[in-house]
Amino acid sequence: xxxxxxxxxxxxxxxxxxxxxxxxxxxxxxxxxxxxxxxxxxxxxxxxxxxxxxxxxxxxxxxxxxxxxxxxxxxxxxxxxxxxxxxxxxxxxxxxxxxxxxxxxxxxxxxxxxxxxxxxxxxxxxxxxxxxxxxxxxxxxxxxxxxxxxxxxxxxxxxxxxxxxxxxxxxxxxxxxxxxxxxxxxxxxxxxxxxxxxxxxxxxxxxxxxxxxxxxxxxxxxxxxxxxxxxxxxxxxxxxxxxxxxxxxxxxxxxxxxxxxxxxxxxxxxxxxxxxxxxxxxxxxxxxxxxxxxxxxxxxxxxxxxxxxxxxxxxxxxxxxxxxxxxxxxxxxxxxxxxxxxxxxxxxxxxxxxxxxxxxxxxxxxxxxxxxxxxxxxxxxxxxxxxxxxxxxxxxxxxxxxxxxxxxxxxxxxxxxxxxxxxxxxxxxxxxxxxxxxxxxxxxxxxxxxxxxxxxxxxxxxxxxxxxxxxxxxxxxxxxxxxxxxxxxxxxxxxxxxxxxxxxxxxxxxxxxxxxxxxxxxxxxxxxxxxxxxxxxxxxxxxxxxxxxxxxxxxxxxxxxxxxxxxxxxxxxxxxxxxxxxxxxxxxxxxxxxxxxxxxxxxxxxxxxxxxxxxxxxxxxxxxxxxxxxxxxxxxxxxx
Length: 640
Hints:
Mean pLDDT: 83
Distance between the termini: 58 Å
Largest sheet: 10 strands, mixed
């Protein structure tokens, strides 16, 4: 007889060889390690008809309830060839999550009455949570998956997300209670394989955005629950009854305000349309002088839907915004920048003087519409030179400013290679590779090169509507990354731009502040500080990076958030790194800008020296604090 500490074995739940025993502790460890993966799997298998917010909460609930009850319980995992690098705990949890998700995907009338209720935990009051919006490809895939049955969706996800062969998929489906796994596999064959998209942020229920629920309905419920006088005192004139309906407004929510200003902002006939030559005579060269372009600028129905969804995005609309960007409706009629078809979607781009708003809907309907926002207030000529129209198949298309004469694609990691010209039609570029969609290791970083009467500049897609402007040089004297020196300065550090994705970045500058001779005849190390400025002002990021001879890319050794280092207000920097020479000796290397008079260290390494460079012997893993003195006598701390 086994002791209490040894779990009893149960018969396998599917044909085949019995799998390993999994106890509660092992399953709990697997849940903690693979929680995001399991929630993504549940989210993809759950029926899209639940709505994105409830689908997110249900996915989390299913995974959190996947642990077996009792501290000493165990189960048997069905035999299969893989499961997160052979982890039986993960395979066990995956089966339980899959079984629960398939149960939730059954038609309501076929489910037990209690199973039709919302999950007990987790619950969120007053907010709707949903993943970040994706591109046209993600929208199209989500629509195709919604047409599949629950078992077929599960088969598609096990193939694409888990990379399992059909034999293992068939066995897992049988264990999950699917009566006809072969039929499910055949039905899943009707959707083209797009494995990379299943790992996209669009389907990540652990990286979420929040919006309020139907505020008017909540106020009405509050009004019914409280005394009439208290409800009127709290809500006042803000309470209004829903009306108007769906009809021509597509995926917009019901109307909640009827006043002249709000109605004017929703009238496509009152959209601001700038003449094609306004930029040539205007005092400003920003988005306010962009003309309306695209073949659908006179499609009143499309424009009405875009305006209505901007003012009142419905529950099924995927809304995203850069940090610090409000998502409310326009105060008055916005300016139309573009309306046309981009890849598999109809796209409308609008500008209200502060924000860029992009509305996208599938070509074959309004289900799955998306609404994206980005701040653009105070944009300079360089920052208003291009907008992202759409992303598809790992590529991005831009809408360029009317003053742009030529567009090209350039690999920032290959400074010696020539740029590849891009065809531009009515301001829309041919597709080019997007680093924002680049999976896995960073082997290239393609950027947009634009040429106008004032010169050539570079911009990069960081996953937002407005590409980030790239510059190079010392703070206060920065220039465009168009010459050989600027391109060479950026090449080893281009991959560090990945850290700034979806952060509301306006521009990024690279400043090579020091070259340091390395001990033991190790050559010369290169110090660069990259600083990302944001549209909202705060959230700036300064990265001190170091590259040794013979390495293709630099390494980030220090980071400062909301720091003034490397910026126009404080054009100074001090950073250090532990480095191992080819003789096996460890050194603390420190460097400051040209105006650094001396550097000293304390803590794990004690040393000091005159000038902007310091090298001192150290032990592996030593930690030290850096202090510096500028030529004007001021003190400076190390970036960290």
